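Okay, can you check this protein?
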Amino acid sequence: MSTPQKILIIRFSSIGDIVLATPLLRVMRAGFPSAQIDFVVRKEYGELVRYNKNLSHVYEFDAQTGTPGLRILADQLRSEQYDLVVDIHNSMRSRYLRAHLGVKNLVSIDKRVVARTLLVKFKKNIYRDVVSVSDRYIEPVKIFGIRNDNAGLELHIPGDLRASAARSMAAAGIDLNKKTIGFCPSAKHATKCWQVERFKQLGARLVKDLNAQILIFGGPDDRDKCFSIAKAINSMTAQKCAADLSAELSLLETASALSICNVVVTNDSGLMHIAAAMKRNIVALFGSTVREFGFFPVGTRSIVLERIDLPCRPCSHIGLDSCPKKHFKCMKDIEVDEVYNSVLSLSS
């Protein structure tokens, strides 16, 4: 197979998946230094790759435009005459797009759908090993001699976004010289979320024992939860030591703010992968999902807390709105003491 000179990589969503794609972008650029390497992503996640120096161009698709917008994008991409398409999404939308490009050389990710289905539906584990999604993204291009450089995830943050994040932290009264613990208490699905009350208890304990400050991160939909955690910690400690930064920062500004954290306590979420990209120490709380799906922290010191002995795990590969068994033991059985001790271990 000839060396490709015009390459298109497709991954529409979501936060974690796109951050996990950054090693692929880096090793593709190293393997094809003179090639045009373009990326297709949904508009709301475009910031994550917009400034990536390994890419030639980023196409940001507005999902609100639906199929007509996808046709327009396909026409635009077809004119580029790519000689290789790398589909690391392999969804109905990405398959529709690649089918309209007329490109002969196409490779796509193996999602291990059979293994995943057997594990979720029948609790039969046929995974031979636990492979990160970031490695799975690189598997399709191994035929070109591309290999993972094991340098981990990365985000390219321009100076103006770092400066705006710094201004937001200053306005919130954050001390850059103080031990800082980050909390990411939300996730897209409820069964991936540790209890709010335990984040409050953990935060108050860390403030009292470590003289730490707590930064709480999330998106616009997480504001009530994050505000309540910050308010409770401040009340329990009788000091202003917790700051709610949810909905205040863009994705890359959030990454910049996460970079000051000594340890980040997080659910299995997109922000967990952003923290990993910033090489933070991570305590990851896994409820209904498991490591076999490949979404564990990559390239940084981490402790994953999960109840591996629960026969009902995993109940989903992406999470659910509620526990099918009604007991939610996968998260309720992760005690504050265990998380606290994990934070201490990574703080030393």
Q: What stands out?
A: The chain is about 40% helix and 15% strand. The two ends are 50 Å apart (CA to CA). The domain at 6-144 is CATH 3.40.50.2000 (Rossmann fold). The first helix runs from residue 15 to 20.
